[in-house]
Every structure is written in C-alpha cells, then in structure tokens.
Design goal:
heterodimer; B: Rossmann fold; six-stranded mixed β-sheet; four-stranded antiparallel β-sheet; 10 helices; globular
C-alpha cells in the first residue's frame, strides 16, 4: 500500500476514534468514563516512554519518576491556590526541567546501566517524597479538597488531550529529521555520531520531551484520584506498565502504544472479572507469547504484510 | 590554534604529529607523524594489528584517548566529537559495514546529509542513481547484500560533500563488479578535488590509486613515499614477511 494511502487511513481511523472518545462522556456511565480516562493515561505514558526508549533504544525503567514529580507538583500547586490547568502546566514544566540535568548525566550510560540508573531515580523520588514531610506530608500523603478539583468531564477531556498530544508529538517526531536521527542512534549510536548526528543533544531533547508528558499526566492523575502518597506517585508498577504496553503494541511506532494500551487495559478488565486471583499471571503469559512470537508487537502483523507485498523489492545481489 | 596546527603546510589537508594511543599497557600507536596532501589519494598500509584502524578512530574522533596533535584544514581536531569533525568536512567509512539496518537506503543517506539542505532527498536519490541502486531506495539496510551495504555506506559519507574521506578497507567482502564501481567513484571524486586516505590490503589497488603511501607497523610509521619506493623498503618487507628479504629489482 502506498505511503500516502497509509497516512490517509491512519488519519481517518484516528479521527473516528477521536470522535468516539469525544462523544463517550455523553453516552456512557461514570464507570466506563473512568475506564477510558485510565486508557488515555496509559496511552500518554506509553507514548512518552516510546519517545525515548522506542525511538532511541535507551530503555528507561524509571519514567514513573517524572509522573510522580508531576503528581506532587500539581497537587501542591493546587493546594497553594493555583488554578487546576496552571498546576498541570507547571507539573509538566517541573518534570521537564528536572529531566535536563538528569538526561545529561544518565544518557552517558548505555544498555542495562541506563535502565538501572533510571530505576534508581524512581526510588530516589519515592524516598524524597517520603522524607520531605514538611512539603509532601510524607507517607500520610496529600489529600486534595473536592472544591479545588475540576469535574470528571474536565479531567476526562484533559487526559484525552494529553493522550492525543503525546500521540501527535510522537507522529511528528517520527516523520521529521529529528526522529530519523533518533532512529539512527537506536540502530548504531557510534555510526550516527560519525555521520554528523549530535547524539547527546538529540538524546537529551527526546528525554526532556518524554518527561514533559508524564509530568502533566501525573498532575491530572493527582486531581483524578484526589489523593497521592509516595507509593502511588512513584509506583514501580507504572514503569512496568509503560514498557509492557509499548512492547505489546509495537515499540518505536505511532500506533503501537495506542493498540497496546487499549488491548492491555481491556484484557486486564476482562481477566480481572473472570480470574480475580490470577489475572496478572494470565496477562503475563499473554505478554510472553507476544514478545516471543511477535517481537515487533501487534502492529508488526500489519507491517510484515506491508513488507511481504508482491511489489516490495528484496535485497537481491545485482 | 596550536603551534603544530599552524606548522601544517597549506597544501596539507590533514597533519598528525606524535600521535600515540595506549590500551592498558599495549602501545597501539607510537608517535605517528602523517601528512595528507590536499587533492591526493594517500594509502595507509601495514600488517594486521599494526594500528591502521586505531589511527582512523583517533583522526575521526571516535577514540578521544590519544595524545599528540592532529589538524584538519588548519584546525586542531584531536579531542573533538566525531559529529563536529564530520561537519568540518572529514568523513570516514568503517572496516565492517555499519549501515543502519532498520532504516531504508534513502533514510541511511538522508540522515548523513545537512539538516539545512532542502534538496537532501534529491541529492541522495542522485547518488543512488549513479551506482544503479535507486530502485533500492525503500529497502531496509539489513536487506541489502554485504557489498551493497558497503556501497551505501560509501554513498552516505558523500552526502556531506566532505573534503577528506577516510576509507577503511572499502572493498573488503565486495564482489568485483561493485568493487570496480567503488574505485571508479573514488577516482571520479578525486578528480573533482576530494582527498582520500585509504586503508587497503590489495597492493595493486594501492599502486594504481595512491600517489603517496604510509606504512604502519606495530603502531609506528616505518616508511613513507610512493609505492615504488616503499615496496623495496627493507623495513616494510620485514614487517610484512618477518625477515629480511632481498629487495625486488623491477
């Protein structure tokens, strides 16, 4: 299928899904609305992880740290009298600012060393939030007064906007020169540097952009749950969730995190209802099957078909 | 600019003085002095493990642990990032092909072109046309034959229109047809003014292409001159064959 047709299909599928998501609050009850909000949350976080780890190959096990920073920043600013939307902007900004020095420090490391450094970062965030009692109220956590919070509809549309914004950002990066350079870094960082790619600048830029989104999402999450504590804000399970969703859908692609988030969340709901004691194990087995037999994720099924089309040229020797 | 850099003659595009590199007690390069004249094809030969690729790593900025002094086009470059050196006009290829496997052939070329060049795609397609690989523009790097990958890697460095290209055994593992295409392009580009420093084991190619040859052995430059002179140099023969031989008379 020509590239133009693929883009057209992507555009219309995206538009229809977006239309349905916009109309959903008027046709479903609060349970489903909350479920969709959580799907959007996972999509936004997965796209953020995809931006740094899927595009550059630097696997982060600690992006929940930016989510936690955003959650605390948003919650604190809200209690200090900032409007909810300003708290979200500041949550994103603080996470991104924090990512600048952290990016310069951690992105010197490669492979498992980077992954472990990021894992440590999440733990540092949790410990700081626990020990800085004067500001964070430590393990007791922060409870947000309902009078300060936006309505469920407003939180729903804000999270939808963040998922859409994160997806459009990944799509834009994917198509432009910056994205091409990130993919070259993922393939062979030394060779990329050797053909003029400023690998440090590109990696840090991708890292900062990928911290911006969890920062904003964390702030909305704090408003959605109206309570956060160190364990919920800097939750390691959230790190795993981002990775699982992207691997399930397809790493380094635009649609992968969306398909992965929708599939994982729906499966989780269904399995949780059917097998309350073993739903996580069942999900784990499913993930194992996908990783073993579809290392490119669910989107690779379509991609393989594209590559195996009759007009695709093989790399035969001349 | 350092004293050494200013001492580099204007017709020398690349000058190296006293370049040394040690790896955990192993002296890979020992005070290497090397000068490449602008517009020439210079050969760099030597037995396996003599330090040729290490010297390329140091010149191109991929190994920044060396001592000494290197200037390119009058500017000191030792310790600079590879991307900075590339943007100044010094490009290199690798001994083993390093195309980006999941990028298409066209993307492999575009990523090496200037960010500010609006016609970068046309330039890439033009280069592919010249070596009859245009039909492969949409094929991923990993799906090319090894020879095609080496050719794409060579085209990739041409995207920045470099003044000096370091070629590290560009014809190794390449079939005769593609090899001829590659050497024809080197001659053509050299005719247009591009300078080359070439590592090559095929002495016929070195004799045919290079106006000047450096011989590296155990990290030291042991001979320098035209091919006719170095092929009869006793130290070169000893480095290659391990014992003193009678120099050839022809």
């Amino acid at each position: 299928m020509p590239e133009g047709s693929q883009r057209l299909i992507s555009f219309w599928v995206g538009t229809v899904l977006m239309g349905l998501a916009m109309l959903a609050p008027f046709g479903v009850n609060e349970y489903y609305q909350s479920f969709l909000l959580q799907v959007f949350l996972v999509i936004a976080l997965a796209q953020a992880w995809n931006l740094i780890s899927g595009m550059t190959g630097y696997v982060s096990f600690g992006h929940a740290a930016f989510f936690g920073v955003g959650a605390y920043a948003g919650a604190l600013l809200l209690t200090w009298g900032f409007p909810w939307w300003a708290a979200i902007f500041h949550g994103a900004g603080i996470a991104a600012l924090l990512a600048v020095p952290l990016g310069f420090l951690t992105l010197r490391l490669r492979g498992p060393y980077f992954a472990i450094a990021m894992l440590g970062l999440n733990e540092v965030g949790r410990i700081v939030a626990t020990l800085w009692v004067d500001v964070t109220k430590g393990g007791t956590g922060l409870t947000l007064s309902p009078t300060l919070l936006p309505s469920l509809d407003m939180k729903y549309f804000t999270m939808l906007g963040l998922a859409l914004g994160a997806t459009l950002l990944v799509a834009w990066v994917h198509r432009n020169r910056f994205g091409l350079e990130l993919r070259a870094i993922r393939e062979d960082e030394e060779a990329a540097e050797m053909v003029g790619v400023n690998t440090t600048r590109n990696k840090v830029t991708a890292f900062v952009l990928s911290a911006l989104i969890p920062g904003a999402v964390g702030a909305v999450y704090a408003m959605y749950t109206s309570y956060i504590n160190p364990s919920s804000a800097f939750d390691h399970a959230r790190n795993i969730e981002m990775i699982v969703v992207v691997l399930f859908g397809g790493s380094g692609t635009v649609w992968g995190p969306i398909i992965g988030a929708a599939t994982v969340m729906v499966l989780r709901e269904l399995l949780w209802a059917q097998f309350p004691a073993a739903h996580l194990a069942a999900l784990g087995v499913l993930l194992l099957i996908v990783v073993l037999y579809l290392p490119g994720g669910l989107v690779s099924i379509v991609r393989e078909r594209q590559q195996n089309r009759p007009d695709a040229r093989p790399g035969e020797s001349p | 600019m350092t004293e050494s850099a200013s001492a580099c003659a204007t017709d020398h595009i690349l000058c190296a003085w006293g370049v040394s590199r040690e790896f955990g007690g192993v002296q890979a390069l020992r005070g290497v002095d090397l000068h490449v004249t602008r517009g020439t094809i210079t050969g760099l030969i030597g037995p396996n493990g003599s330090g040729k690729t290490t010297l390329f790593q140091v010149i191109s900025g991929m190994d920044r642990g060396a001592t000494g002094s290197i200037s390119f086009d009058g500017e000191p470059i030792l310790g600079r990032r590879p991307s900075q050196i590339y943007q100044r006009g010094l490009a290199r290829t690798f001994q083993l092909s390093r195309v980006f496997p999941e990028l298409t052939v066209l993307e492999n070329l575009i990523v090496a072109g200037s960010r500010h060049d609006r016609s970068v795609k046309e330039r890439a397609l033009g280069l592919l046309e010249r070596v009859r690989l245009r039909d492969y523009a949409g094929v991923r790097g990993k799906n090319l034959s090894y020879g095609q990958q080496k050719l794409v890697e060579f085209l990739r460095v041409l995207m920045s229109d470099p003044a000096l290209i370091l070629l590290d055994e560009p014809a190794a593992g390449v079939n005769p047809t593609l090899r001829q295409t590659l050497w024809d392009m080197v001659r053509h580009l050299n005719g247009l003014g591009t300078t080359f420093l070439v590592i090559e084991h095929n002495m016929e190619v070195i004799a045919d292409l290079c106006s000047s040859v450096y011989v590296l052995s155990e990290g030291e430059i042991i001979a320098h001159g035209d091919f006719a002179a170095i092929r009869n140099d006793e130290r070169v023969l000893e480095a290659y064959f391990g014992k003193k031989r009678k120099p050839a008379t022809a």
